[in-house]
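Ticket #4471: structure export looks truncated?
Reporter: QA, pipeline team
Priority: medium

Steps to reproduce: submit the single chain below to the structure queue and open the exported record.
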Amino acid sequence: MIEVTTTYLQQLSPGDLLPSSRSLPPGARIERVAAITPEFSRFLYRGVGSGWNWSDRLSLTRAAWESLMQTPGTETHVLYVDGAPGGYVELAGRIEDSGTGVEIRYFGLFPHCIGRGLGGVLLTEGIARAWDLDSRFGGFPPVSRVWVHTCSLDGPAAIPNYEARGLRVFRTETELVEPGDGAAGLWPEESLAS
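Actual output as written to the record:
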């Protein structure tokens, strides 16, 4: 067991977004994946998260993963650098009392893109797309907040990058957890009865 601190940050207005001063270099682009497959989503999750021991989704079956990706209000935006994935942002919009709340569920860079100034640009795009998510999903009221949580197991640049984009801390929690294994196998076994 180790002590882990989880930090929650949010924006309450699109005007709170502080864009990165950098721009994408030649050969880089950010693109929404309109019909993401569980395999591609898992590839992104493992490629970004294995170094930070992301493991919360690794026990999901393919069907469960697909169900998450098909949930209305969920979308993935991928950073490509010279044709290869370099990072991603997964957004999850949910209707709340005051409108639509959009969680930046996953965000990060592949190891070969860390330290190249791409994180701020990708996060800027992810937050901007979070603020207009209701325009892409019928039945969602206007977005009233964008939020994210990160923990002390994530990279050291996570909180500074979130704060540099205008997200503000609204809660912290500390707990003892048993860290998962971010290097687990491709898919858990599915029961033959299912």
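Status: closed, not a bug. The export was complete when the record was re-opened. Leaving a note from the reviewer for reference: The chain is about 20% helix and 35% strand.
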